[in-house]
Each structure stands twice: as C-alpha cells, then as structure tokens.
C-alpha cells in the first residue's frame, strides 16, 4: 500500500498552481470547461475539456478512497454546485456569487477546487486526479454510484449525530466553533451578495437614465436648445461613468471578497462534513465499546476485533482531521486576507479612477457655465 | 374692449374729448363710420361697457364681488355729499391743475396729493407697488413713457382703425355724461345708480392716475424728454397731439369736471389718511388688480407691462439713497421741464429697456434679482386629521420694494396653494407661466398626520419643503410675479387670511386639472389652424419634453429606490460582518472583520447621502419641470382661448354684417341703424380680441423662451451640485479604503 502511494506521488505531472480553467463552452444545456495546466517536466501544457459530470466523477473518486487510512478526516475541497444554463431562481440562490456574471466566477471557483485538490498531500495521490487533469478522454461520463457521502443520506443522519458529545475537547470546540462560523459566513456571503446585486441594479438604472437623457437632445440651431442639449449629453456621459463605476465596484466585490466569502462558506461546510464523519466514527467506536462490554464471552473476541478496527480507524481519522484542521485554519485566514486586501486595493483603484472622472466632468460643467 | 379703454389712459382723454367736440360740432366732417360709432355711443356701448369690465375681462366671479364693495363707497360718496365737498375739491384741483399746466410753482400740498394719488393709482395699475417714493419716481417716468407710446398708438390707430380710437373714447364720453347726470339728477333708481357708478369706477381707473398726471406732462414738459427718449420718429407724433391739445379749451373744462367727480370719489379717501394709502392700496389691490390687471396690459400689448416691470426693477436696483435723491429732485419739479432731463438721466436704464422691447428682451437682469427665499422648519401643528404643516418662510433681500432686509413669516401649506391660485388667476390669462407649487398629497400628509415618525414621512416632509422653497424662489425670480402685491403680502405679512378652496388642488384633482388642460390643448390645436409655426413647434416640443421628463423621473425614482436598497443591504452586511468578526478565532482576522463592519457602516451613510442627493437634485428637479411644463401648456392654453375669443368675435361680426346686408336689401332703415351699431361694436371687439391674442402670444413666447433659458441654467447648476456631491462622496470612499487597507494587510 505504501508503495502504491509512493508511485502515485509521482503520478501527478503538473504544477498544482498552474491549473487554470480558461474557457467555458456552451453546447445546448451542457457547459464544457477547458482546463489548462503546465507540465512538471518542463515545457508544454495539458489542455483538457471537462464537463461538470467529470468534476463530480473526480470528487466521487476522492471520497471513495477506502484504502487510504484516515481519509474520513480529510476536509475535501468543496466542489461548487452544478451550474445551470437556464438557471431557475432557486439554483441561482444556491450558487450565490457563482451565478453572477458570465461564468467567470464559476470558472474561478472550479479552478480553486482543482488547485486545492492538486495541492492536497493526500488527495493529489489519487490516480483520478492525474487522469482528470491529463487524459484527453473524458473520464466520468458514466453513472456515478452513490456512496455514504451522498448529501441526502448525510442530512438524515446529521439530525441524530450532530449533537453527539465529543470525547476530545479540541474537536468539541472545533465543532461548536464551526457551527457558528458556518452560519455567520453564510449570512455574510448572502448579505454581500445582496449588496452586489443592488449595485448591479444601480448600474443598470444609471445606464437607462443615461440612454433616456440622450433622447432629450433636441435638434435645432437655437442656441438655447443647443445649450440644453449639451447639458443633457454631458449629463448622460456623467451617468455613463457612474454606471461604469458601479459596475466595476460590483465586479470587484464579486471577484475578491465575494469569491472569498463563498469559498470560505463552502469550506466551512466541508469542514463540518468532515467533523461529522469523524463523529460518526466516534459513535461507531462507542457502540463497539458498549458491545464489547455487554457481549457474552463467546462473542467477546469478535467484538473486540470490531472495536479494535473502529478504534484504529477513529484514531487515523482524528489524526488526519487534526492536521487538516490546522492546515485549514491557516489556509483560510490567508485566503480571507488575500480576498480582503485584493478587494480593498481594487476598490481603492476604482474609487480613485471614478473620482478622477467625476472631477473631469465637473470641470467641463463649470466650463460650460 | 374694456381692456383698451382701461389701458389707454393718457392720450385718449384728449383725443376723446376732442372727438366729442368734433362729433358734436362738426358731425358731418368725420367719416360715416365715425359718425355711426358716435351714434351708437349713446345706446348700446354704454350698457356694454358697464357690464363687460366685470364679466368679460376677468370672467371670474370674484371680480364681480370685489367690484361691488368698491362701487358701493364710491357711489355713496358721490351720492351723499357731492354738494359741498366735491365743489371744494373741484376748485382746488382745477386750480392746481391749471397751475401745473402753467408750469408755475405748485404747492407742496398738491404734489403730495398728486404723488400719493398717483402712487396709489400706479400701485394698482402696475400691479405691485410698495413704497410710495418709488412709485412717484416710477409713475413719473412711466407716465412719460406711456405717453409717447400711447400717443403713437393713438396716432397709428387714428389712421386705419378709426373705430378703435372712437371705440375707446365712446364709453368714456358716455361715462362722463352718465356720472354727471347721476350726480345732478340726484335721485337715480338703484339699478341705474349702480351702472353709472361702475362706469365711474372705470373712469376712476382710467383717468385719475393718468389724466391728472398725464395732462400737465403732456401739455408742457413732456415734449423734451420724450423726444430725447424716442428721438426722431416721435417728433411728428408729438406735433399732432400737441396741436390737438391746444385745440381743446372746451374739452378741458369738460374734463376737469370729470376729474372733479372722480376726485370726489377718490380724493377724500386718500386725502384724509395719507399714511394709510399704502395699506389701503395693499388691502384693496388684490381685488382691484384682479379686475384692473387684465386691463392694464391693454392697448400696447404687454410690452407696456414690461416697461413697468423693467422700470421697477431697474430703479429698485439703484441704491435707495440714489432713489431718495432722485425723488427729492423729482418731487418739487416733477412737471417742470427742467427736472425732466434729470429724471430721464436717472431713469437711464430705461431706454435700453425700451430698445429691448422692440427686439427680444434680454434677461440678464434676472441674475441681479437680489432676493432669496427659504422655507424652513416644517412643523406639525395640531393633532389628528386636523393637523397641518407650517413652514417658516424667510426672505432675504436688498430690493427696496421691501421694507426690511430680512423677514420671516409662518405659512401653512394651503397658503402656498392659495398664493398660486391667486397668481394663476391673475397672470395665467395673460400668458404668464406661473410656477406651480407641489401637489397636495393625501397619502403623504395622512402619514404625517397619523404621526408615524418613519423615514418615509420625514422624507415626504423634506421633499415638500424643498419643493415649496423652489416654488417660491421661482415666483420671486419672475420679474412680473415679484411685482404682484399678493406675493409681497405672502412674504411679508404676519397674518394671512386663511386660504380656502384649495381643496380643488388636492392630489388627484391637480393631476386631473393638468390632464384636462392637456386635453383641451390638444382638442383646440385641432380646431386652431396655427398661424405661427413657432408656437406649433414649441407645443410639440413641450409635449415631447413632458413625456421625456416623465420617463426620466420614473428612472431616477427607481435609481433612488435602488440606492436606498443598497444602503439597507450595506447596513445588514455590516452587521453580519461584525457577527463574523466576533465569531472569528483568529484575532487579526477578527479585528479586520470588525473594522470592515465599521467601514461598511460608514459606506451605508454615504449611500444614504447619495440617495438623498439623487432624490433632491434630480428626482425633485425633474418633478418640478413636469409641473412647470404643465404650466407652460396652461399658458399655451390661455393663448388658444384668446384666439378662440377672437375667432368667435370675428364670426359674430360676420353674422352681423350679413344681417346688415339682408336688412339693406330688405330696405328696413330703422333696423339698419341698429345693425350698423352692432357691427361697429363687434368690429371694435374683434380688434380688441385680436390685440389681446397678440399680446398673449407675445407674452407666452417670451415666457417660454425665459422658461427654457432658466431650465438650462438650472439644470447646469443642479448637475454641478450633484457632481460636487458625487466627487465628495467618492473622495470620502477613498479615505475609507485607505484607512482599511493596512488593517487588511495586518492579518496573518
């Protein structure tokens, strides 16, 4: 098993941070993403086209690596929800920020997903990743079989096991904290999405106003009329730049903090799932222990065996989980910081540009008077 | 018809009288037409004249009502004590007049009487006179100005439409005869008494201010300055009238008699309480002007009104000291020829003003209007559904027509509406664009009344306050409207009589009114074969502008809604960011997040301000213009009405002529005479209405041009304010971001 791991370690033949989702093609109802990645060996790039089903296939494979110890403790990079060509309001709500714009945010999210997978010490060893990134044949066009990570079944179980008291204080704290953070991040992302949506509405309204102002222009030689027309045209330009300003503000919001909050929120979700899986293991282990205690001597050995297995699995899981959590905490702070700094810088730039433009407009108007 | 008779004061008395003479003495000499006209004078026009001033001119019940009280005291005075007092006055005045005519030294007394009289009189005629001093100056100047103008007019009209001149003079002669009869016969039946007395009122309006005053001016000193003012073309005009004047010793006597009758009516009033003249004039002006007003602008088309306005503006723009000095020089020597050059030089701005009249009027002076009105401190008074909003109206001005530099009064909303009603009643028919106030809003006001202190009701109150302020500022920026006594009263007087019947303007009613006006306009356009392309184009422009403004308004309103939404959303994002910050374990990140929350809070404030800026600079401005465009349409509508009246009169005249032809054919000489009289009467009316129409057209045209210029100027100003605000908020934003950036970088 160890050899296999070693083998697969060298399997991944691309730079993890060179993975890019460069393009998206629309064919009917299906979206095809072009994924480009740099070869480790030196020059040359891999170009593959993948549909969302392929991404799902990859994730299923990552989930179902039964042979890797402590796989249950991994915080799997979250795959964004399926995009819709003719999105219904509900699916838009589910997608959040990723539904905005012309797929760029979505591509960005997929890109982040792939990069996270490729950079992950455990997950990148999976063959499926290499296949997904390099094989020219689409891997996952067949029906994926559902496993226990299926969200639906998980939701049912969640009700029972979510509140289970943890034996480890660290995990108990982490679970409580995660619960709060998940909620907060989710609301923050939603609110921020509202802000962006309104900004886009304002941009549209400004555009309408600007166009309508153009219609106010009256032809004619009359100097009074021309003066008024000039005012209208100028004002129309002003609103055009207000519109541009708003559009770029909204775009900045989406591309930086918006995506950041979205990713954060999905990652928190993923952490919660991981913690939940661990809790399941814990419950399993406790059940086994109880069974051992209650078991009749005849079955005691067998029970012991089960308990032992559960114990090792739980320990593996806990070990991996601890590492994952530590890694995740660092990663997410860094990610959020990047998002905030980027956001701030971009907004600052936009504000300065706009101020410049407004100043120019103002000068023009003062000159007219 | 009434209009011209009222309007034409100075020259006509002379020519009238002369005509009377001529007609009486040399009946055969004049043309047939003329003779006919004079024949008709005795019969129909008398009754016509007595009724038309009240019914025809203003066509509004108030004027009737207002006329009556006015008539009452006068008739009582003339009826009761004509025996003793009038005779005294008669001598006094004749003396004075003759003294003036002889250009000898006149008693101060007389000048005072004259001054105050003309002051009051002018106050009425010119529509808005405040200080007596100013009026003296002005009336002198204007008298000088009117004279040549009307003289000219008289000259012009005397050649072609003789009817007009005689039409104007007819009623006067008949009136002169009538009151005299009334006075001397001493026992007139009630109904009859009323008629002559209303004629008397006409006379009063007609001649008091102008006759007494104009005469001395005309007879002697007038010639010089007028020549200097008007130069060449007027000279021959003057040769004639002067000849005419010299040719009329008898009419003068006749006239003096009429003057006495008039003075007995008006004189004692003003004589006894000179201090009160102003207040009386002010008190009575609303009524008097409402009837006089339409007439004041009679014959010379509205240009004359402008002369007054201009003159007032110009004069009042001079420093008060200067004016007083002028007054000092002008008073003692008013009719004397020596002072007139001085007066003319003092009134220097006038010639240019007159020149402007000939071409397009330049309105540069408007910027000089030194009056600023602010509406502040909306306050709810009372409880429940009887509550109302009162506003503080503060005026800041250096115009000498106001007694103080700053003054503040409290007005409730319906007072604003009442002012508009008065103004639109008075000035609307003349083609002026009267700025409309904001509509009554049942919903908005109910919210305020119920007392919910939510944002929408404060928003409503603030919007309305702004709208009222802009409305008043527009009114006082209008050169003619500023002169209106009602405006002054509104701004100055402590207590205003409660405005009633503003209900008609409430909410939907107002809109309906506008729509009705629109409908009427569109209907009438179909009927009216527009002779003036300019108006046709303008009307279309106004219509399309109205539509565009409505569209723009809807767009801006939706923009404002989005802005408000943004501010709300930003606030809730700030809240959730704060929550996230407090839930965060990483201290640096937690700190940054709570900083972020603060930044977002500030941004919410910015968005709110931006929404307000959008609302108040654009949405409200556009709403104002939608209202103003309604007023513009209204003025077009009034022009259409004037046209309609003219056309009706023309078709009536046509009918009368046909009857005449029929009668001629049927050889019925007895009825023929009547028919001819009627024709003459209608011809006079047609001329009159045509002139009215032209006057209204000219006013509308000028007003529309003024409106458009103002619109552009105002838009530009608003845009600049808006951009400044935008820039400022953008700079504020930059500051916020710059402050936040190090915080974000400090994470990790």
Give a summary of the structure in a few sentences.
Chain A has 369 residues and is mostly helical. Chain A contains 9 helices and 3 strands; from the N terminus they run H-E-E-E-H-H-H-H-H-H-H-H. Chain A is 69% helix and 7% strand.
Task: Kindly list the characteristics that best describe this protein.
heterodimer, A: 369 residues, mainly alpha, three-stranded antiparallel beta sheet, 9 helices, 3 strands, disordered N terminus, B: 748 residues, 27 helices, 78% helix, elongated
Walk me through this protein's architecture.
The complex is a heterodimer of chains A (369) and B (748). In chain A, a hairpin with a 6-residue loop joins strand 2 (30-38) and strand 3 (45-51). Chain A has helices at 2-9, 52-63, 89-95, 104-119, 127-134, 151-161, 169-215, 223-294, 297-368, and strands at 20-27, 30-38, 45-51. Chain A is built from 9 helices and 3 strands. With 369 residues, chain A is mainly alpha-helical. Chain A is elongated and about 110 Å long. Chain B is elongated and about 115 Å long. Chain B has helices spanning 2-7, 11-25, 32-42, 44-57, 61-80, 85-102, 108-126, 132-159, 162-185, 190-219, 223-230, 232-246, 249-272, 277-296, 303-317, 320-330, 339-346, 350-358, 413-427, 442-450, 455-477, 479-482, 485-492, 507-527, 533-583, 587-666, 669-745; strands spanning 371-381, 388-397, 406-412. With 748 residues, chain B is mainly alpha-helical. Residues 1-367 and 502-509 of chain B have low confidence and may be disordered. Chain B has 27 helices and 3 strands. In chain B, helix 6 runs parallel beside helix 10 (190-219), helix 8 packs across helix 9 and helix 8 crosses helix 11 (223-230). At the A-B interface, helix 7, helix 8 and helix 9 of A face helix 25, helix 26 and helix 27 of B.
